[in-house]
Design brief:
Chain lengths: 161, 321
């Protein structure tokens, strides 16, 4: 019972931390390198414990992110929904990929996410972003193995505790 | 892992149902986006949820603030000493300038009273701090730590020590969002200080320059010309520095000149900004040269003028110009 509540809190806590680190600013030079944290954490959870992640949850997290980020209500909800759907659909395959292949899959998912964002922004009438805007998915994919191992390790420790 | 297996796994159960749900959620998101684009719901929702949103902003701003604190704490002694020295010199200069300004201001006040105008030189301002929060992938907005509870209203101009930074576009109870003058969707009416030519400066796509896209071919514009706010439109009061021209070229169509200007304000370095109250009344355009004159001569070249003043009475050369 207690263990279950702990893992529940851990789950919510990682998502909240992801939203918070999305807001933390980096120095100007590093800015384009910032990965899209909520997507990475949601991906981790949809691969690791699918019973907790659903499209509704992705939608809710996206709405919270929109509320905090203030660009356009529903934008991130749409992106995270699409991302979670693909991840859940291919979950059984993705889980048993070797790590580098998984990172490539994450890269494809994040690039797809950027393209979705670009389409939304274009429809909303924003201008074309600079080339450095496309760096972020690559950084996200490069960080994926470390994030995955870190979260896995922490989770294992919490279980053992 | 084993626990996850025990529960029902909907992966193979209902793919069609899953797709349907995806479509419903995507449609919902699109409806939200369209409604938000049309009606600006997001901001209403945000001000309703401000009790939650604002602490999160403060929390997200903590790392940037602590990095600053650490850099102060670990800065080496020599650096601090030289900075102290520099600040002393600056203070001295500023004090000297202030004394001179006081005399000029008194005289200006007197003349203005004589002319019976209601404008005064004293600025009604409010100091605000920038909260380090990253609002989305485009960096043309700032978040300030003052909101409607502190009397901030939408549309107030924001300046720093060197020039105009932007204007307040959204106000929450304790925070406000500023649109910078370099935002591609921002435009500010300016005059060119040297010639008095009135035009409009837009933000540019790279976000660190201003562009003046529709200058007549015959207009006299040179690199290094200073831009001041013209006060037309009533949003920005006249006479504040906006930027400095650093590139002039004929447009691709050949019908206009296009100039690029670097903003005068420290757009991406300022941590303290001033919010202007008492916005200029939207009257007609002011006379082009008169508001530009005194503030340019006082503003940008303090070092040159401040070396000489001990000899002659300071008020004299301030007004003559």
């Amino acid at each position: 019972m207690n263990r279950q509540r702990l893992s529940q809190w851990w789950f919510v806590g990682t998502l909240a931390a992801a939203l918070l680190s999305m807001l933390v600013p980096l120095p100007g030079v590093l800015e384009p390198f910032k990965p899209y944290w909520p997507a990475l954490v949601l991906l981790y959870w949809s691969l690791e414990s699918e019973d907790q992640v659903s499209l509704g949850l992705a939608f809710g997290v996206g709405l919270c992110a929109d509320l905090l980020n203030g660009a356009l209500l529903g934008e991130q909800a749409l992106r995270l929904c699409a991302l979670t759907f693909i991840a859940l659909r291919f979950r059984s395959r993705l889980r048993f990929f070797p790590m580098w292949q998984q990172a490539l899959a994450v890269l494809a998912l994040l690039l797809n996410d950027r393209i979705l964002l670009l389409i939304v922004r274009m429809l909303a009438g924003a201008s074309l972003p600079p080339a450095s805007w496309w760096i972020s998915p690559f950084v996200g994919a490069a960080l994926w193995p470390f994030l995955f191992l870190l979260l896995d390790d922490l989770r294992a420790r919490l279980r053992i505790q | 892992m084993a626990r996850a297996r025990d529960e029902s796994s909907p992966l193979f159960a209902g793919n069609a149902a899953g797709t349907l749900r995806l479509i419903i959620y995507l449609a919902l998101a699109m409806v939200l986006m369209v409604l938000d684009q049309r009606n600006g719901w997001l901001w209403r929702l945000r001000s309703a949820a401000s009790a939650v949103v604002e602490p999160v902003y403060r929390l997200a701003g903590l790392p940037a603030a602590s990095v600053h604190t650490l850099s102060v704490a670990f800065a080496d002694r020599q650096h601090l000493t030289s900075e102290n020295q520099r600040l002393r010199e600056d203070l001295l200069l500023a004090n000297a300038k202030l004394n001179r300004m006081a005399a000029v201001a008194a005289q200006n006040q007197h003349l203005k009273e004589l002319l019976d105008t209601q404008h005064s030189l004293g600025l009604n301002v409010q100091l605000a701090r920038v909260i380090g929060v990253d609002l989305g992938a485009y960096r043309y907005r700032l978040t300030l730590n003052m909101g409607s509870r502190d009397g901030v209203r939408s549309g107030q101009p924001v300046i720093d020590a060197h020039g105009v930074m932007g204007q307040v576009i959204e106000v929450l109870p304790h925070t406000a969002v500023v649109m910078l003058i370099t935002d591609p969707s921002h435009a500010i009416p300016v005059t060119i200080a040297r010639t008095g030519l009135r035009t409009v400066a837009y933000g540019s796509r790279d976000g660190d320059e201003l562009s003046l896209p529709n200058l007549p071919l015959a207009a006299d514009i040179r690199v290094g010309d200073k831009l001041l706010t013209s006060g037309i439109g009533g949003r920005f009061p006249p006479g504040f520095p906006v930027g400095r021209i650093d590139n002039v070229a004929p447009a691709a169509t050949g019908m206009f000149q296009v100039a690029l200007a670097r903003p005068a304000a420290d757009i991406d370095r300022s941590t303290d900004v001033l919010l202007l109250h008492d916005q200029a009344e939207p009257e007609g355009p002011p006379a082009p040269a008169s508001p530009a004159g005194p503030s340019t001569s006082l503003g940008p070249a303090p070092a040159a003028t401040l070396v000489s003043p001990p000899g002659k009475p300071p008020a004299d050369d301030g007004v003559r110009r």
